[in-house]
Amino acid sequence: QVPLVESGGGSVQAGNSLRLSCVVSGITYNYVAWFREAVEEEREAVAIIYTSGFTLYGDSVKGRFTISRDTARKNTVYLQLNDLKPEDTAKYYCASGFVVDRKLVQSQDIRYWGQGTQVTVSP
Description:
mainly beta, 0% helix, 48% strand, globular
């Protein structure tokens, strides 16, 4: 069983929106995070939501992206991407694990990765 399964990527024009989903199963965790990796760029943390509901965002997406958890299906986390820009083009990954300190986790903190979903934004 794959612990993290993303969906919802696609190709859109700048200014439009997308919603990514991540379904978590079969693991123990206290956060779900979204990362993205553009071509020839390092993987960067985009947003995180803890099981308490606490959220944090990367500076480049604050005010445009929103991370949330499905109120009915607690194992499903969404990333709403609004006002998309060409520089948001990347492969987006769902990630999860367990950390003690509430922070915007970095790649080295991650225990579980999803397979990724591509987001492409044209001008």
